[in-house]
Amino acid sequence: MPHHDHGLAHDLDTLMRRSAQRRRALRWLGLAGAAPLALLGCGGGGDAGATSTSSSDSDSGSATGGGTSTSCSVIPSETAGPYPGDGTNGNGSGTINALTLAGIVRSDIRTSVGSASGTAAGVPLTVTLKLVNTASSCAGLQGYAIYLWHCTRDGGYSLYSAGVADENFLRGVQVTDANGEVSFTTIFPGCYSGRWPHMHFEIYPSLASATSGSNDVKTSQLAMPATACNQVYGTATGYDSSASNFASISLATDNVFSDDQAATQIASVTGSVTAGFAATLTVGIAA
């Protein structure tokens, strides 16, 4: 298991979040009586204070998913974490920027590009993000670039973690289509100690601007629903450490999803370990 040294900025952010836990706990208790069963199982909450607009577009619920919605809300901004690979930090050997790699604009992110050639093993997963404008009746936003990255089934991050520092897989950029959608073929992420299973993404106003994390208009995270995590970690090969890590975490104790906005970040997931999974999430920004 790789060691995740999140750095001083992350530690200060964590302390600030924890100092507000008592206030947030009251909100969680207030939501518990009305929250959908799928969100209760994951520890999800409502989207307090976010812009919300009625929409005919809604995520389809499923036995393995959460995040069912009939409106679009501004997704909360979150930390990019210590492993963004977007030109804003390094790995001890210099600044790391996957955004400038030839071939990084791709839908299948399981294999490294450039001089690296490794392939990330794991349960197949297709991730579809739908970018919508909360300031314009939830209309799809075309022409935006979305950079997605996440950990391996062992909990490591390419470009940073021991054993995969020379790889750049599980990172990629796609441009939203006329419906505001992008789709990535990847693997189900692992669960490492101290974090709920998740994916990171940055949104850029255009592909031309997607060259540095300093140019993004939104950085956030996607949370995997508990039911799907239990299926994968309980039966799939290679996820042994994820099972024990997942048993020790909840959305309510995660240092990112522990606020009352997690409901907007939980993906709807369908599928199985044998057939693979599909995750969908509507991502709202005020454009």
Provide a brief overview of the structure.
This protein is of the alpha+beta class and 287 residues long. It is built from five helices and 13 strands. Strands 5, 6, 9, 12 and 13 form a five-stranded mixed sheet that branches. Strands 8-7-10-11 form a four-stranded antiparallel sheet, with no helix packed on it.
Topology:
Blueprint: H1 7-19, H2 21-32, H3 37-42, E1 52-54, E2 71-73, E3 86-90, E4 95-97, E5 124-133, E6 139-140, E7 145-149, E8 171-175, E9 181-187, E10 198-204, E11 218-223, H4 226-235, H5 240-246, E12 268-272, E13 276-285
Parallel strand pairs: 5-13
Antiparallel strand pairs: 1-2, 3-4, 5-6, 5-9, 7-8, 7-10, 10-11, 12-13
Helix pairs in contact: 4-5
For this entry, give a set of tags.
five-stranded mixed sheet, 13 strands, 17% helix, 287 residues, 5 helices, 25% strand, single chain, Protocatechuate 3,4-Dioxygenase, subunit A, alpha+beta
